[in-house]
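Deliverable D4.2, example record:
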Amino acid sequence: MEIKVLGGGCHRCKQVYDAFCRIAKETGADAIILKIEDLVEILKYNAPIMPAVIIDEVVATMGRIPSDSEIRELLGKK
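Output generated by the structure prediction step:
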């Protein structure tokens, strides 16, 4: 599973990235988690509201910080 957290480096984007990293580690999820801050790369995903989370090239969340339980669901670790 490849997870990309899109954002310009703001505090909320960092929170989302850190939460995915923490929960992936806690649950043992097999995931590669990347933080994408390059605007040209971000525009490729048609996700205009940051932070956005892309999982396996599909927009999963946008414009908010997902809860820990939602992140677990997205990682397939309920």
